[in-house]
Automatic annotation (TrEMBL):
Assigned EC number: 1.6.5.2
Similarity remark: Belongs to the class-I pyridine nucleotide-disulfide oxidoreductase family.
Domain annotation Pyridine nucleotide-disulphide oxidoreductase dimerisation: ranges: 364-470
Organism per entry: Labedella phragmitis
Sites where the protein binds NAD(+): G199, S200, G201, V202, T203, G204, A205, E206, G286
Record-listed FAD binding positions: K55, G129, D327
Cofactor: FAD
This protein's name: NAD(P)H dehydrogenase (quinone)
Subunit relationships: Homotetramer.
Domain FAD/NAD(P)-binding: 10-342
Length: 478
């Protein structure tokens, strides 16, 4: 008697960044035949040119700050001159060595991810990929996708995770030497004498903060009246105050009209006619999705006006068997969200248990010094009546551990549902806020109320004590 075995589900993943990587792993875990198409390396730009190298650079900047400010804690560094007199050494940063290290870390992380996919039975194809209708992907194995050598991959489910690229102004074309995008900064061999950063969003603020700490003179050109215009207003005010105190020049309500090479430096012309001269310029004015020319429209996949792929909470597009994850979609452009979207897409496609992504539960972080971490509803949404909540803000200056560590700036802000006291959001501005936000993320995810948070034992002394103190201040009176 002959038995017919059901054919394995075939999954094609276009893009090996966080979303594509997690989708591939999930598919392999569930027994599918998975192929990943990636042009630059597993991990995508998040690992190779964005998150891993940028946060490694920021870690170096934090180390430089720690050394410079250690004297406030009584730690002093001195050398000796030839006649035995003490002299305080300067803090120097070898940018060439820093960049060599961080690019090495990025390559190693990419290789680790690649090895993990291969060990799980995932096929990896290197090349330029595009949809061929709704049920296949074609890959050009020649750079730029202009060759005639193609690989056609048929698929029951397709996941698009092609990421995004730096947005370019036609009047400020990067040359990789003096006018740079954030992917080109790691080619620098020395600290820029004067770095002009155009754009005061998350990317611009992070690099402005880092390079000021590394020793560059920094001018931040902001088109709005405050840096980080899309973030919590109190948090943005703290960061701008720290920027200015550290010697950064912040040009508010100033829009860059053009950036050109000028001698051995750059000239930035603002829309009001003013000019700013510097040694280098970083263009950080957002990103555009890498969705053009990959067959999405021909397959019937709906895009937003900005070119992002429209997806629902299980990462499904307008075409039932095509899913999308990451910065190329209309969801939050965060690596953690991309990863969750990738797994969710495959679980949904293969009929496994799935929890739709809830964006209000996503915690996010801005890696300035200090950091800004957020989760849940925002204060503006509460003030606008979109959510009903009570707000409590506790400065870190009152925290005993913060005093011991010499922390002067920052706060913990907690949002609780009016009446029930359920934690609906929060903001933390502090060193390593990215680590401190996790208790609030748990509270938001599991609908804990402020009394439940307050009853948890925080170590004394600790920065997390400010979280329980804020929760106590919002105690529900029965």
């Amino acid at each position: 008697m002959a038995y017919e075995f059901e054919r394995k589900q075939r999954i094609a993943v276009l893009g090996g960044g966080p979303g594509g990587y997690e989708a591939a792993l999930a598919g392999a875990q569930l027994g599918a035949e998975v192929t990943v198409v990636e042009r630059v390396g597993v991990g995508g730009s998040a690992v190779i040119t964005d998150v891993v190298p940028s946060k490694s650079l920021i870690a170096t900047a934090e180390a430089a700050i720690a050394v410079r400010e250690s004297s406030e804690l009584g730690v002093q560094f001195y050398g000796r001159t030839g006649d035995g007199k003490p002299v305080r050494p300067e803090v120097a940063v070898n940018l060439a060595a820093v960049n060599k290290r961080l690019l090495g870390l990025a390559r190693q992380q990419s290789e680790d991810l690649r090895s993990n996919l291969l060990e799980n039975g995932v096929r990896i194809v290197t090349g330029e990929g595009r949809l061929d209708g709704r049920d296949a992907v074609i890959v050009s194995t020649e750079p730029g996708g202009a060759g005639t050598d193609f690989d056609r991959i048929e698929a029951d489910t397709v996941v698009i995770s092609v990421g995004a690229s730096p947005r370019i102004l036609p009047t400020a074309i990067p040359d990789g030497e003096r006018i740079l995008t954030w992917t080109q900064l790691y080619n620098l061999s020395a600290i820029p004498e004067h770095l002009i950063v155009v754009g005061s969003g998350v990317t611009g603020a992070e690099f402005a903060s880092a390079y000021r700490a590394l020793g560059s003179e920094v001018t931040l050109v902001s088109s709005r009246d405050q840096v980080l215009p899309g973030e919590d207003a109190d948090a943005a005010a703290v960061i701008e105050r720290v920027f200015k105190r550290n010697g950064m020049t912040v040009l508010a309500k100033s829009r860059a009209e053009s950036v050109v090479r000028s001698g051995s430096g750059v000239l930035v012309t603002l829309s009001d006619g003013r000019t700013v001269e510097g040694s280098h310029c970083l263009i950080a004015i957002g990103a555009v999705p890498n969705t053009a020319g990959i067959g999405l429209e021909e397959a019937g996949v709906q895009l937003s006006e900005s070119g992002h792929i429209r997806v629902n909470r299980v990462a499904r597009t307008s075409v039932p068997n095509i899913y999308a994850a990451g910065d190329c979609t209309t969801f939050l452009p965060l690596a953690s969200v991309a990863s969750m979207q990738g797994r969710t897409a495959i679980f949904h496609a293969m009929g496994d248990a799935v929890t739709p992504t809830e964006l209000r539960n996503v915690s996010a972080n801005i890696f300035t010094q200090p950091e800004i971490a957020t989760v849940g509803w925002t204060q503006k949404q509460i003030e606008d009546g979109i959510a009903q909540g009570d707000i409590y803000k506790l400065p870190l200056s009152s925290n005993p551990r913060a005093k011991m560590m010499g922390i002067k700036d920052g706060f913990v802000k907690l949002f609780a549902r009016t009446g029930s006291g359920t934690v609906i959001g929060g903001v933390i501005v502090a060193p390593k806020a990215s680590e401190l936000i996790f208790p609030l993320a748990l509270a938001v995810e599991h609908r804990l109320n402020v009394d439940q948070v307050a009853r948890a034992f925080a170590v004394y002394p600790s920065l997390t004590g400010s979280i329980t103190d804020a929760a106590k201040a919002l105690h529900i009176v029965l």
